[in-house]
Amino acid sequence: MAYKVAVVGATGNVGREMLSILAERQFPASEVVALASTRSTGLDVSFGDATLKVKALDYYDFAGTDICLMSAGSAVSKEWSPKIAAKGAIVIDNSSQWRMDRDVPLVVPEVNAEVLEGGIKKGIIANPNCSTVQMVIALKPLHDAATIKRVVVSTYQSVSGAGKDGMDELFRQTRAVFVADPIEKQKFTKQIAFNVIPHIDVFLDSGVTKEEWKMMVETQKILDPDIQVNATCVRVPVFIGHSESVNVEFEKPITAEKARAILRAAPGVLVIDKREDAGYITPVEAAGEDATYVSRIRKDPSVENGLSLWVVSDNLRKGAALNAIQIAESLINRKLLKRAA
Ligand SMILES: NC(=O)c1ccc[n+]([C@@H]2O[C@H](COP(=O)([O-])OP(=O)(O)OC[C@H]3O[C@@H](n4cnc5c(N)ncnc54)[C@H](OP(=O)(O)O)[C@@H]3O)[C@@H](O)[C@H]2O)c1
Fold first, then answer.
1. 92 pairs with which residues across the strands?
2. Cα-to-centroid distance, 181 and ligand 1 (Å)
3. Ligand 1 atom 32, closest CA
4. pLDDT tens digits, residue range 26-85?
5. Is 151 helix (H, G, I), strand (E, B) or coil?
6. Is residue 323 lining ligand 1, measured as CB closer than 6 Å?
7. Phi/psi of residue 124, nearest 5 degrees
8. Which atom of ligand 1 is nearest to the CA of 11?
9. With CB atoms counted within 10 Å of each terminal CB, which end of the chain scores lower, N or C?
10. Rounded to whole angstroms, how far apart are CA atoms 9 and 16?
């Protein structure tokens, strides 16, 4: 069986990665359609060895589409996802628009694919925030083993998480520093080249940023509403790959050795954890890879049952495009896609 797949946001960071992963994994597609704004109509985008001509979302008829991989931001998703779903396609959305909707499953296949069996009432499935995805992949097997009470996480998030404009800004500012040009800020609130910015998405009344709030509520929706999460989300001058320093407090005792063994056996996780020079992973090595890497697993002596971890993943792949395609594969494997071509 083969499915007609539309990629909305095909010219963006995530959309391009989606096209590349669909080709790489030989996704069973009868046709792949690349869609973006009218600005991009007629542009070529790569799909494996082939190229696709970009079509305008505004004028595209979704009748006959089985799966729509959506990565064009919340405003576009708010308007278009219900319309596309009404045409019979299952929409897998990367924006934050639908994640906390009670009728929309929020899915990381290695962690909670079974929620797909509960029904896809609106025809929309949400992909979690990139920082949430990699964290819950590492936390899930540890939660099963020793029950997590509380998580304190600080993120080191790459500029690609802010779209192609974010990557361009880091490049331009880095160059400007070297040639002593003025630093221009458009995408980020402060200089990002040779700097770090403790501010991602908007501030909420409580003082946390929306990115930090997303990590809290999404982790609770995916893993367990009883887990308390405190996040500090920071943008760093890295092009691709988010890193996280994660402190976890458990109900039950769990040693670093036991955690290491559990994580080694966990789906989607690769443990790189040697207590020697370079015995850990950094974002440069994680970029382009599918795994969520866990390093620096050690006891947190400041609480009774505590561990500290370093978690790194490619935010464009597992944090977005790969996770969305794995959701589509889960639908197929579970025979949950209505229409077969
Ligand atoms: N980057 C990440 O790590 C990451 C992780 C998880 C989730 N996400 C989410 O994924 C989405 C896309 O992120 P990105 O990083 O790929 O952004 P991006 O590089 O800025 O790309 C945005 C894409 O959306 C398209 N688009 C914008 N307005 C549109 C419209 N009115 N109609 C149709 N298409 C439109 C753009 O098309 P044009 O080129 O024609 O403007 C482009 O293809 C966002 O919701 C983001 O929050 C991103």
1. 69, 125
2. 29
3. 37
4. 999 999 999 999 999 999 999 999 999 999 999 999 999 999 999 999 999 999 999 999
5. strand
6. no
7. -125, 135
8. 43
9. N
10. 8
